[in-house]
Amino acid sequence: MKDNLAMDQQSAGASRRNLILGAGAAAAVAGVGVALWRFQPQAVTAAASHPVWTQQFDTPSGEGLAMAAFQGKPLLLNFWATWCPPCVDELPMIDAFWRENAAKNHQVVALAIDQPSAVRRFLARQPLGFPVGLAGLAGTELAKSLGNAAGGLPFTVFFKADGSIWRQKMGQLTPDDLAQWRDVRA
Fold first, then answer.
1. Which segments of the chain have a pLDDT < 70?
2. How is residue 41 annotated by DSSP?
3. Of 1, 78, 84, 168, which shows the fewest CB atoms inside 10 Å?
4. Residue 7: half-sphere exposure toward Cβ, Cα within 13 Å
5. Cα diameter, the chain
6. In angstroms, rounded to a whole number, what is the distance separating the alpha carbons of residues 179 and 94?
7. Are 135 and 113 a contacting pair, CB within 8 Å?
8. CA distances from 95 to 107, 109, 130, 148, 178 (A)
9. Nearest Cα residue to 110 out of 123, 100, 101, 121
10. How far apart (Å, rounded) are the C-alpha atoms in residues 136 and 87?
11. Nearest in space to 45 (alpha carbons), one of 112, 131, 136, 142
């Protein structure tokens, strides 16, 4: 009888342990699912009427940067910050892409989600050939309206010439990302 009681207690302990492990595994799977959903680019407003085309930003030199000026040609719109290592790492590659493809009507604009003084210091050390706008924290909201639900950086939106979004990318760009976009028509 004592042995049966001990076995019942061991069995109950094993059942509780399995229940706890099962609940933990289910929570982990749910957490991964939620994270993947949050970091996937989300649907956005119709291309032609999207508020991105009405935005104006200051540049580090104090000039105005009107996004409407970039309509009608393919546009890579990159959201970045000086404190974001993957952002800083991808900028020379984006700049080289722009230099190689500007004559083919491919445009690049980078919107800094950062303090203007930090952006100016960064650009003094590492100049970029394409336009840079000072978007500040308002740039985070613009990125969210373009599908960046998590508000993470770097975030890039590839627009086709007709203003429609070809692709959104959360995370650092690769040369393959740029090559695919360069070959997109329309």
1. 1-49, 185-186
2. P
3. 1
4. 4
5. 89
6. 11
7. yes
8. 11, 10, 7, 23, 11
9. 123
10. 15
11. 142
Percent helix, strand and coil across the chain, each to the nearest 5: 50, 15, 30
Query: What is the DSSP secondary-structure string of 123-170?
Result: HHHS--SS-EEE-TTHHHHHHHHTT-TT--SSEEEEE-TTS-EEEEEE
Query: How far apart are the C-alpha atoms of 86 and 43, rounded to whole Å?
Result: 24
Helix (H) or strand (E) holding 112: strand 107-112
Find tokens 């982990």 and name the residue: 28
Q: What is the pLDDT of residue 5?
A: 53
User: What torsion do the CA atoms of 100, 168, 89, 136 make, to the nearest 10 degrees?
Assistant: 110
- Residue 183 in tokens: 């070959």
- pLDDT at residue 16, as a whole number: 65
pLDDT tens figures, 125-151: 999 999 999 999 999 999 999 999 999
Enumerate the β-bridge partners of residue 77.
109, 157
Q: Which residue bears the tokens 């508020």? A: 51
Kindly report the pTM of this predicted structure. 0.75
Residue 116 and residue 60 in contact, taking contact as beta carbons nearer than 8 Å: yes
Instruction: Report the distance separating Cα 13 and Cα 17, nearest Å.
Output: 6
| Whole-number pLDDT of residue 21 | 56
Q: Residue 33 contacts by C-beta under 8 Å, 6 or more apart in sequence?
A: none
